[in-house]
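Internal QA ticket QA-208
Title: Verify multi-chain structure generation after dependency bump
Assignee: T.L.

Test input:
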Amino acid sequence: MKEGYEVVYKRPKTLLDKRMHYCPGCFHATIHKLLMEIVEEMGIQEKTVGVCPVGCSVFAYDYMDIDMQEAAHGRAAAVATAIKRMLPDRYVFSYQGDGDLAAIGTAETIHACNRGEKFTFIFINNGIYGMTGGQMAPTTLEGQKTTTSPYGRNVQKLGMPLKMAEMVSQLAGVAYAERVSCNTPANTRKAKKALKKAFEIQGKGLGTTFIEVASNCPSGWKCTPVESLDWLKNKVYPYFPLGVFKDVPAVKEEV
Amino acid sequence: MKEGYEVVYKRPKTLLDKRMHYCPGCFHATIHKLLMEIVEEMGIQEKTVGVCPVGCSVFAYDYMDIDMQEAAHGRAAAVATAIKRMLPDRYVFSYQGDGDLAAIGTAETIHACNRGEKFTFIFINNGIYGMTGGQMAPTTLEGQKTTTSPYGRNVQKLGMPLKMAEMVSQLAGVAYAERVSCNTPANTRKAKKALKKAFEIQGKGLGTTFIEVASNCPSGWKCTPVESLDWLKNKVYPYFPLGVFKDVPAVKEEV
Amino acid sequence: MPAKGYVEISMEGCKGCGLCVIHCPSKCLELNTSDTNSYGLHYSYLAKEDVCIACANCAIMCPDAAITVYKKVG
Amino acid sequence: MPAKGYVEISMEGCKGCGLCVIHCPSKCLELNTSDTNSYGLHYSYLAKEDVCIACANCAIMCPDAAITVYKKVG
Amino acid sequence: MLVEMIFSGFGGQGVLSMGKLLAYAAMKEGKEVSWMPSYGPEMRGGTANCIVNISDEPISSPVVTAYDVVVALNLPSLRKFEPRVKKGGILIWESSTIKQPPTRDDIKTYAVPAVDMASNDLKNVKVMNMLILGALVKAMAVVKTDSLLLALKETLPPRHHNLIPLNQQAIELGMAQVK
Amino acid sequence: MLVEMIFSGFGGQGVLSMGKLLAYAAMKEGKEVSWMPSYGPEMRGGTANCIVNISDEPISSPVVTAYDVVVALNLPSLRKFEPRVKKGGILIWESSTIKQPPTRDDIKTYAVPAVDMASNDLKNVKVMNMLILGALVKAMAVVKTDSLLLALKETLPPRHHNLIPLNQQAIELGMAQVK
Amino acid sequence: MGEIKFMKGNEALAEAAIRSGLQGYFGYPITPQSEVVEYLAMQEPNHNYVLIQAESEVASVNMVYGAAAAGARVMTTTSSPGFSLMQEGVSYIACAELPCVFANIVRGGPGLGTIQASQGDYFQAVKGGGHGDYHLIVLAPNSVQEMVDHCRLAFELADKYRNPVMLLSDGSIGQMMEKVVLPEPIPYKPDKPWATTGKTPDRKRNIITSLYIQSEDMEKKNQTIQAKYQEITKNEIRYEKYRVDDAEIIISAFGLTSRICKKVVDLAREEGIKMGLFRPITVWPFPTDQFAEFAAQDRVKFFLSAEMNAGQMVEDIRLSVNGKKPVYFYGRQGGIVPTPEEILNAAKGHLK
Amino acid sequence: MGEIKFMKGNEALAEAAIRSGLQGYFGYPITPQSEVVEYLAMQEPNHNYVLIQAESEVASVNMVYGAAAAGARVMTTTSSPGFSLMQEGVSYIACAELPCVFANIVRGGPGLGTIQASQGDYFQAVKGGGHGDYHLIVLAPNSVQEMVDHCRLAFELADKYRNPVMLLSDGSIGQMMEKVVLPEPIPYKPDKPWATTGKTPDRKRNIITSLYIQSEDMEKKNQTIQAKYQEITKNEIRYEKYRVDDAEIIISAFGLTSRICKKVVDLAREEGIKMGLFRPITVWPFPTDQFAEFAAQDRVKFFLSAEMNAGQMVEDIRLSVNGKKPVYFYGRQGGIVPTPEEILNAAKGHLK
Ligand SMILES: Cc1ncc(C[n+]2csc(CCOP(=O)(O)OP(=O)(O)O)c2C)c(N)n1
Ligand SMILES: Cc1ncc(C[n+]2csc(CCOP(=O)(O)OP(=O)(O)O)c2C)c(N)n1
Ligand code: SF4
Ligand code: SF4
Ligand code: SF4
Ligand code: SF4
Ligand code: SF4
Ligand code: SF4
Ligand SMILES: [Mg+2]
Ligand SMILES: [Mg+2]
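Actual output:
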């Protein structure tokens, strides 16, 4: 600590002092950090319960100093639903990958959103199955190569990438849905703001909150972390635009 | 047969000469009849394979003189996907209830539609679980009483009824989506036309075709068949409007 | 004037739902409330034969395909 | 002129992704390509101490929260 | 003693509730009872039935296939269950709607025109099932009439208690049918 | 004879492929072989390893926990696997990046500064693993050098065959490290 | 003494759950089980439990997982195909050691099968239909009264051992009405310091997981739960004996069939055949030693297992008897309930 | 003689399926199995099979159901949690008597467990993890070569008996590379007059169902498939013997462990202990009679089952031996592969 200087940014304490297993440059880690900053800032460590299903983030409970449940693949929304219903004054979030939330867990996702379950979805859309070694996800882009689409995703045969934030926005139970990213400091700050807003709306019990992160996977995409930011900008955002898709509280305020 | 008269309507031959188990006035029977009329008119009995999961229509294969598969609850879309992929020149349809297609089978429905599987969904939305004795379905209307919503569906707790035709229309793989009903001769004729159009589009391989029937369930609704028509008109259509939600071939022709 | 149309309704096939009855433009169908078929159901029958116009509305509405519709030739 | 800002980077915590490096407006960070930490990774370090403006962009971008940012008091 | 019975007919004829009432009455008399309905898609076909066992000792199986008493309120049920009456057993059938009477002569059969009597004499076809029940307890004293009335009182929601006299009448009328 | 080996290091150092090449070469010599990689999220941490067994007889278990030969290309691997070398076994370690040498004296250890030599002498750090492999076959003649070269030829896609001479050089350089 | 009612098995189960302090129920309709959720829906305004008709059985079981981990007293019920769908979740719950109650109101399988009663899911219940080595405590009620009694017991055992407990019932018991004595409602205050309710400053964070990526850790976890299973086996075996003291033939059955077999015993005794009934009430843990004891007695000639399946519990009896005496099987399938007479005949067939 | 390759177990399985005339594959990624679908994706342009990475294992198994019913030669593969999710579908397929191949590349459970190899799903595979009485034919390969050989055999048996066949493999075999001899590709022309391919005028409509709502019909269906199972048991039991002729100790193991046990036998023999290995290759049908034969020989002192679980196949051995000789168990869990030495020690411990 240098004399005459004060700290303007430091690692949040709720992010345990443990090296995360994520690959270099992976936004999974970024989002973990932002989440723990929010928990700290909102002072809700005692009231927060997280749910992490399988996916690269299955070990999230090793890093966050909060109560957590691991969930079976695709079932985080069902698990979070039950926790939130049993403990309605807690802050509950599910933290899910695109394989988890948009493939095997589609039914649980749609129905939790439709029921308006009052927890926060944190949806890490990296367009690939990171954990299992880079297979195609429902959000893999047209032409994108993965281990199970080695010649590029053929949308004639496999369909177009699913836009989950847009889809759940159509459901009455969803209060807030936004797609964010972390490719620049500005976007990362926005991502944090969105996450915080989701938690605040959750606190008011206004409905389901859904934050989709247009995330990266340098390992699965077979590129460097820095290159992954270019891929995001050039390929991902054009198809998965960042922005707010639904904001019921804001609309209500306007009226 | 009266002398000097000719037949202008008779039971299609592909509808086997067997009393159907459906309750009086149930549209399940109506749709069976229309379907078999179409199979007969199109001359595709040899090329048609149907899939009926559980629900009141699980015995459909007892009545239709075509090759059929029974499917597990919710899985008709997966089953139909595989049949159509293995036998791409056949006409394949799945015939599913709202419990089946919109609750337990949500993931299979969304993903088959998204992949643009080239079979026809026939979705009998009667707002209830008929077969199991009248429990709430994902499409049960606000305030509607069922055995598991005995005080009326509370949408605060359980969410709004799911609009499946609208939802799947958002998916790129869907070529044609329409909601029809059978409450009047005119609507029944429209329903038949829609079903036929779906089969024709399927024959051309243009994408997924999805016909939702705003159906009735006099037994589950605890009313007479005639009263069920009023319920449809007064309660169901206002929330589930009849009409075409997507018609890619028509749009293509226009352009 | 002999009727333009004529319908045959399978008594055992009919379930007495009444959908044909209410949609007949000529009001020629009725449910037989004094008798039941072997399933205990009041079946529909052509009560006013002379006004049937062979429009087939009844048959289209009949879920159980219990109705055959005939039209006068020529 | 003494720098307005100053950063501390955990050598072992850094994974060498380079996201901080490319987002530093003052270009004061670099990856140490001649050395690795115990994980075999080239870590980031404050190469040009005097131009750091304490904007914290680097820290915000760092997935692994390996960076602490300091600002001159007053 | 164990009495094994089945009540069968169309849905809506009140076969399930008459079985339930009888079982309840027997329970009130301190008997062991079981009531087992047909369930699921079977009912879609429009028929319904329930098996009722009444016994002094614990009941082994709630499901049986040969009966001491068969109550048949429609023809399909009569056809189906007449062969399953035990030799010397009892068959009670609704004779105003069933036109083809039973044929066995090794059992006791009772024709009760319950539908007609309920509509004509009591002006309420719904109590037809109580008429049948009356006939049954007369034909075989499985429970006392008083127990049936007690059962009605305890199982009918209070707002329907005004119907008890009518039901009682029906039971008595039914009893009178069995000589 | 059965030789049980593990190749370990950071992902990207080519540990899996060096193991595979050795196993393939041995197979070509008519040996029984098995190659078993670490898999799944373990690899997320940035480390990788594979177990290679070479034997004259069918191999029982592809997974073993004590080794005749350990190849460690980074410090965590050295720390983890040094204790698992069998007494009298062989440990080969990359000595230009690992600063803390092994400590056991009941095994044979070989320090190979493969990273430096590959970058400096061969101008291609990627063939570092071939250098190590060269050292290994010199330290213990599990396969002939020719078999390694044959294996390279048969497993490299033809468009990379131009790299074979470089790989051969690396193997030879590695062999020269072991006296 | 408690309230006396005339109730359906499924409804009695639901009422018993309420009276045992039910806090969360998550389920999906399926015949012949749907009355459980229907009853709970009807009673919902009078109580405080959370009730969700889930979108599927997969969702149900995972809701149970979440709610149980959050410390609540929870239950789900289903019938055969639905329980098959739950197998992944069941395995997770067993490994995460979460207390909860399942009921399988078994119907005839395999496949869609029939909705009539069956005992075809015995193996699934006791050997583990899900992946990996785990056990549920499995109670096999044979009456509406036991649906009530076993429900309360199930919740208690679940909490005591942090282990899921299953009621292996069937469609007949679920659908039939019988007299029941209902227990007094108990107030339920969970004492679950391990539950994920939010990390307070006085404790370390709580984590519920079934993931042990390192083999050594996973083996340790396996050993822990295996040790627990031995403890349960030592403490919790339950069974019923009927006229076995001088019996030369031991007939055995669980659930509904055990009632029929009581009658078989009586019929046999009337004919002078010395028969007795041994009925496992816990089918896991299985009363192995008790069978072995019978087998060790010279008097006992053979065993007969009567089941509504193709022969499942008979394997556990054979394992217990271990060749000391013959063990025969008689079964019906597809929803057919065997009559006392046919079982007796089967037994007599082995009397040579 | 076929082509010789150095291949991963999972890839060899995929290649063998292609060479056996695979027409449809439906699967979902899961470690340690994902290479199967990855390999098939890579080879897709060179062949004619339909390949879908499904949205889940539930979808996969139901796609298999649909494609098999339509007459195609089809397969799905997964690992433990995924196979648990398939249980409903498996039960349906068994009852509908559809030929198809499953492979479970087993990992350590229960729950999410570990991704390392295990044999913890034996019970699920052989007793039926789904509801109702049914059986899969279960082959337990112990090498990459057998992944290939058993794959071809599995397709043949499936068609022959209209029964699903399962490869009960594990993560080690799936992940390891060994030498394999690949068989010649065969052209496959299905001859399945029962398949739902569209009703032609020359036949009645074909219906694939597992629904038999009337108990009598369901019982008949049950009896039909039970009769088939007996037929399979009569014809298809497969096993391997190693140095058993004079053996006093019979050690038994399936899959990967059987290789380790060969070494155990050799080590034992070196010490003068007369040990032999009996390895079930089909674990269902189980070689019951063969075990019984050993048990009947005076020479044989005891049996030891070595497994990577808490003791599962040992039950089937006990059922076979039926108390004639002691049957012991030695196991490791959580992904730990036992060493020959520790198994030998376990055996010696029983030598008194
Ligand atoms: C039932 C089941 N099926 C499959 C898997 C294997 N699996 C683990 S994580 C995962 C998907 C990972 O992708 P995603 O959800 O996008 O998360 P990411 O790793 O990309 O962050 C899969 C298929 C599993 N654990 N359980
Ligand atoms: C796995 C599984 N869960 C539940 C059931 C029970 N079940 C059969 S049909 C059905 C729903 C029927 O409703 P719907 O799909 O709307 O069809 P309907 O009868 O209304 O036409 C249910 C829940 C089942 N057969 N399988
Ligand atoms: S595999 Fe991809 S998603 Fe997973 S940690 Fe690595 S970069 Fe992140
Ligand atoms: S229960 Fe409802 S949906 Fe089913 S047949 Fe009857 S009316 Fe039709
Ligand atoms: S054909 Fe038309 S007019 Fe004639 S009975 Fe039918 S509906 Fe009436
Ligand atoms: S519509 Fe058909 S079933 Fe209904 S009353 Fe008319 S004829 Fe009968
Ligand atoms: S605080 Fe700002 S200026 Fe200083 S090193 Fe970080 S990014 Fe650069
Ligand atoms: S962003 Fe963090 S991990 Fe990446 S190079 Fe900079 S300090 Fe290292
Ligand atoms: Mg992902
Ligand atoms: Mg419905």
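Spot checks passed. Chain D has a mean pLDDT of 94.
Status: verified.
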